[in-house]
């Protein structure tokens, strides 16, 4: 019986990680309520998720808000840039879609390629901010380089988010299911899955005798 409830028991370790992800999900959602704080919240979410993947046993609440505070300025700037670019290219794509002709077909393809590259870089930039000490320009530059340099991982994450997007638009039931899961544990589980990829990617850039990752 004592072994069953021992912290070294794989089942208890699993339950502990599930609880951590549930708590992390709630904190992330609450910290995103002011729209402008989403960038810092994403950085903090990735910071804690990466530590969970690497089994560093972080303090979830304390660690989240520490990472949130240390990455607030940089995360907010990157978030606002990302939102501005999204609306800019979405507006351009809508205009091109309303036009007929081969020229505008080519324009739509180019815009779609740009949007996909920006989306890939968006996946990488907040984990980079959370893990490394670098300027905003360096973080954005490295996000573009990594998303192209580690294309298999990028495609895996695209497939994952593609499945989520498909479920959101497939039917009302699947839409409600995704929203319900997201409110319970979806954001933290997604971050955890993505950071399994990022942990392997970052190993190639981290020094062999790694100091504590930057918050």
UniProtKB/TrEMBL annotation:
<dbReference type="Pfam" id="PF04854">
    <property type="entry name" value="DUF624"/>
</dbReference>
<protein>
    <submittedName>
        <fullName>DUF624 domain-containing protein</fullName>
    </submittedName>
</protein>
<dbReference type="InterPro" id="IPR006938">
    <property type="entry name" value="DUF624"/>
</dbReference>
<feature type="transmembrane region" description="Helical">
    <location>
        <begin position="103"/>
        <end position="130"/>
    </location>
</feature>
<keyword id="KW-0812">Transmembrane</keyword>
<keyword id="KW-0472">Membrane</keyword>
<feature type="transmembrane region" description="Helical">
    <location>
        <begin position="176"/>
        <end position="198"/>
    </location>
</feature>
<feature type="transmembrane region" description="Helical">
    <location>
        <begin position="72"/>
        <end position="91"/>
    </location>
</feature>
<feature type="transmembrane region" description="Helical">
    <location>
        <begin position="22"/>
        <end position="45"/>
    </location>
</feature>
<keyword id="KW-1133">Transmembrane helix</keyword>
<feature type="transmembrane region" description="Helical">
    <location>
        <begin position="151"/>
        <end position="170"/>
    </location>
</feature>
